[in-house]
Amino acid sequence: MADLTLEQAEKIVAAAKKKSTEIGTKMDIAVVDAGANLKAFVRQDDAWLGSIDISIKKAKTARYFNFNTGEIGKLSQPGGPLYNIEHSNGGLITFPGGVVLKNASGEVVGAIGVSGSTVENDHIVAQAGADALGK
């Protein structure tokens, strides 16, 4: 199984921090490896304490199912095929801010989870981190 290196995780976090600063937010940023284990974490100064857990759960949720969390959220609405999935696996997060990380070969190597602002901003920052993997 392909996995994420610490150097890659640090590069992802750096790109996410840069984007967070550019858009004027303070974020908690978590990166998990292919096994959904925490590989890197940063809490920017004054980022919400409650977002620590959310960012880690977003990253794990994205990796557990290999879908961005916003996509899982669409499927988990009442009447949807994944309704109540957020109650599994010790608690999942099913709103935007978790993005799957893939290597150049398209293999899933981990995920990033970001929390601390609107879910739209969380996703923007997470995507910036994910985009850094390919650079």
Report on this structure.
By secondary structure, the chain is α+β, with helices and mostly antiparallel strands. The chain has a single domain (6-133), classed as Beta-Lactamase (2-Layer Sandwich). Helix content is 41%, strand content 19%. It has helices spanning 6-22, 50-65, 69-75, 119-133, and strands at 28-33, 38-43, 98-102, 108-115. It has a 4-stranded antiparallel beta sheet with strand order 2-1-4-3. α1 (6-22) crosses α4. It starts with 5 loop residues before the first helix and ends with a helix. The mean pLDDT is 95.
Q: Helices, strands, pairings?
A:
Elements: H1 6-22, E1 28-33, E2 38-43, H2 50-65, H3 69-75, E3 98-102, E4 108-115, H4 119-133
Antiparallel strand pairs: 1-2, 1-4, 3-4
Helix pairs in contact: 1-4
Give the CATH class: Alpha Beta
Q: What's the mean pLDDT score? A: 95
The share of residues in helices is: 40-55%
Rg on CA atoms, Å: 14 Å
Offer a quick outline of the entry:
With 135 residues, the chain is of the alpha+beta class. Helices cover 41% and strands 19% of the residues. It has a single domain, classed as Haem-degrading domain (Beta-Lactamase, 2-Layer Sandwich), CATH 3.30.450.150.
